[in-house]
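User: Hi! I have a protein structure encoded as tokens and I'd like to know what sequence might fold into it. I'm fairly new to this, so please keep things simple.
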């Protein structure tokens, strides 16, 4: 039995698409089962509830062999520190999985070993240490910047020919596409041979700066698109204006600051994923902008 968390999320739903029909029994944990597609409710066992809840986790892991684990983002207005959010969400699941000998495949950040504070990414590393401390067998998928983050910029790209972030314009930013993450996770969940504890960095074949990304976006869309770097302080203030709690905005800014200071270089990695940024722009961004 393979248990999947966040089955309606960008990564979770893609994993489900790969697992359903594989011959393996699949169970999903969902806060609201009505949001699940009909084919998922038909083909998978559904446990309704939060995967932060110990009782829900205990029920979901009965007779399970593998668990895909992803901590959802904190509520935008949540003032609780990100580290507490990650640890509180994960603690019961890691202990339950360890006690039942359920192997975990979980999503975390690339850059473990970075010497400074890294906001949201430090919280993810704290989760990693918690999982490891339980003795559970795991594979941690260590990820850099998601290409899909740029989808949030579809409107300004379309209307103004610009996308903006607080990441340094001329510093390479390693990226990964969620479809490659889902493919790697599904393969591990179907593989019964691995054991022990290990991290698996997943990084795309490119090492582009945001300025270079803008150039590829321009070529793909057939019209000029430029990158605009916004000050980190302005980025943080804008998050608060949009409704984020000051603590969440501060930790989000801390993440971007760490990216600008090379956090992803702190953990050895190579280009191991197939999807390049140009392919992603053609197959994902271009249809999104046109719609």
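Assistant: Happy to help. Inverse folding works backwards from shape to sequence: for each of the 291 positions I chose a residue that suits the local structure. Here it is:
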């Amino acid at each position: 039995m393979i248990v999947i968390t966040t089955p309606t999320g960008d990564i979770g739903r893609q994993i489900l698409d790969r697992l359903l029909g594989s011959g393996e029994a699949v169970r999903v944990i969902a806060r609201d089962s009505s949001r699940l597609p009909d084919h998922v409710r038909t083909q998978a066992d559904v446990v309704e509830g939060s995967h932060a809840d110990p009782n829900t986790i205990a029920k979901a892991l009965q007779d399970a062999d593998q668990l895909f684990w992803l901590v959802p983002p904190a509520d935008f207005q949540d003032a609780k520190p990100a580290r507490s959010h990650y640890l509180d969400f994960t603690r019961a699941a890691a202990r339950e999985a360890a006690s039942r000998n359920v192997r975990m495949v979980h999503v975390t950040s690339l850059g473990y070993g970075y010497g400074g504070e890294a906001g949201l990414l430090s919280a993810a590393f704290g989760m990693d240490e918690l999982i490891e401390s339980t003795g559970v067998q795991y594979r941690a998928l260590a990820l850099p910047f998601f290409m899909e983050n740029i989808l949030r910029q579809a409107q300004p790209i379309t209307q103004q020919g610009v996308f903006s972030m607080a990441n340094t314009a001329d510093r390479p930013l390693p990226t990964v596409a969620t479809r490659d993450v889902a493919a790697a996770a599904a393969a591990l969940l179907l593989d019964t041979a691995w054991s022990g504890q290990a991290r698996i960095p997943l990084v795309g074949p490119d090492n582009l700066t945001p300025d270079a990304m803008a150039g590829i976006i321009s070529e793909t869309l057939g019209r000029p698109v430029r990158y605009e770097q916004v000050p980190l302080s302005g980025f943080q203030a804008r998050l608060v204006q949009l409704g984020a709690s000051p603590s969440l905005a501060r930790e989000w800014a801390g993440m971007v600051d760490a990216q600008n200071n090379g956090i992803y270089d702190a953990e050895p990695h190579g280009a191991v994923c197939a999807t390049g940024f140009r392919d992603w722009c053609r197959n994902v961004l271009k249809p999104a902008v046109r719609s």
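A useful reference point when you look it over: The chain has two domains: 2-146+175-201, 210-290. Feel free to ask if any position seems puzzling.
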